Amino acid sequence: MKNINKLILAGIVATIMTSCTVTMPVAVSNAEIGDKRGVSESTVLFGVIYLNGNYGLKDAAINGGISTAIATVDEETKDMIFFAKKKLIITAK
Fold first, then answer.
1. pLDDT at 64
2. Of residues 26 and 4, which shows the higher confidence score?
3. CA dist 25 to 37, 41, 77, 79, Å?
4. Residue range 53-76: average pLDDT?
């Protein structure tokens, strides 16, 4: 019986630690793609509660020192059981 309990506990821990990361393009413009890259990150609880109130394009532009037109916008999402980590990645010249 102890071995079954340990196996169940190991399965629960493995499930909780399992994650999947997906990066998807969100938008693209006619602006020239350059070397500048800005990132905004936030943890999201239960899919709706963003812990970083500044998460977004403006925060990413400030973090990357971007003051020109944004060329591309990508969003990377790393899903876990009860929360996710989101990263908004922008590029510009």
1. 93
2. 26
3. 15, 16, 11, 17
4. 93
Domain residue extents for the chain: 20-92
Which three-class secondary structure string do you get for the chain? CHHHHHHHHHHHHHHHHCCEEEEEEEEECCCCCCCEEEEEEEEEECCCEECCCCCCHHHHHHHHCCCCCEEEEEEEEEECCCEEEEEEEEEEC
Determine contact, residues 77/62, Cβ cutoff 8 Å. no
From CA 92, how far away is CA 77, in angstroms rounded?
Answer: 21
- Whose tokens are 């999201």? That residue is 44
Q: What's at 91, amino acid-wise?
A: T
